[in-house]
Amino acid sequence: MEIGVLGLQGAVSEHERLLTACGATTRRVTTANDFEGLDGIVIPGGESTAIRKLLVRENMLVPLRELIAKGLPTFGTCAGMVLLAQPESLAGIHADVARNGFGRQRDSFETDLTVPGWNTPFPGVFIRVPYLKSVSGPTETLITLSDGRIVAAREKNVLTTAFHPELTGDTRFHQYFLDEFVRTPVKQTH
Ligand code: GLN
């Protein structure tokens, strides 16, 4: 099982470390040729405007958007969530995203997250993160904070978190992606 980590900018090696800990082989993706034959891809946190510009410059934006639309298992964190929610970027989920949605005074914090079906809370690391104001169509909410902000969601082959599982030692989100999205690909209806 080979998982690409988009390696243009951001927290790339952190995702590689956790995917490797889960038993996956990783490939750092920096050109459109690197998409060939991947079983899944991770879009890391970083700076979504910078990542988007680099995707355009490297002629990777349209091919990646098409691969995601065709069902490539995709996991985006933080800036990755922003790019997946923007129709003009990767268009992987149907959601209204608020970039840097937690404002200045709380732009970095940690909080325990309750994940439905998981026995113990997940350590949520939030660094200038976005959130989803709402989701629509086939997008499902996975985690909503007590104030109503949506911080994890999924749609078909796409998983997104506003927080940074890659900055914790907790492999459960990466394992969940590998088990539920990569090993058991979601059937496409179109
Ligand atoms: N606020 C950043 C953006 O919108 C994302 C921050 C992050 O990935 N840590 O690009």
From TrEMBL:
Q: Which PROSITE patterns match?
A: GATASE_TYPE_1 (PS51273), PDXT_SNO_1 (PS01236), PDXT_SNO_2 (PS51130)
Q: In which pathway does it act?
A: Cofactor biosynthesis; pyridoxal 5'-phosphate biosynthesis
Recorded E.C. number(s)?
Answer: 4.3.3.6, 3.5.1.2
GO BP annotations listed: L-glutamine catabolic process; pyridoxal phosphate biosynthetic process; pyridoxine metabolic process
Entry annotation: catalytic residues: 78 (nucleophile), 164 (charge relay system), 166 (charge relay system)
Q: Which GO-annotated molecular functions does the record name?
A: glutaminase activity; pyridoxal 5'-phosphate synthase (glutamine hydrolysing) activity
Query: A single GO CC term, please?
Result: cytosol
Swiss-Prot/TrEMBL catalytic activity: L-glutamine + H2O = L-glutamate + NH4(+); aldehydo-D-ribose 5-phosphate + D-glyceraldehyde 3-phosphate + L-glutamine = pyridoxal 5'-phosphate + L-glutamate + phosphate + 3 H2O + H(+)
InterPro entries per UniProt: Class_I_gatase-like, PdxT/SNO, PdxT/SNO_CS
User: What UniProt keywords are attached to this protein's entry?
Assistant: Glutamine amidotransferase, Hydrolase, Lyase, Pyridoxal phosphate
Annotated residues that bind L-glutamine are located at 46-48, 99, 127-128
The record describes the protein's role as: Catalyzes the hydrolysis of glutamine to glutamate and ammonia as part of the biosynthesis of pyridoxal 5'-phosphate. The resulting ammonia molecule is channeled to the active site of PdxS.
Name the protein family: Belongs to the glutaminase PdxT/SNO family.
PANTHER family named in the record: PYRIDOXAL 5'-PHOSPHATE SYNTHASE SUBUNIT SNO (PTHR31559), PYRIDOXAL 5'-PHOSPHATE SYNTHASE SUBUNIT SNO1-RELATED (PTHR31559:SF0)
Q: Relate the assembly described in the record.
A: In the presence of PdxS, forms a dodecamer of heterodimers. Only shows activity in the heterodimer.
NCBIfam families associated with the record = PLP_synth_Pdx2
Name the record gives this protein: Pyridoxal 5'-phosphate synthase subunit PdxT
Protein species of origin? Secundilactobacillus paracollinoides
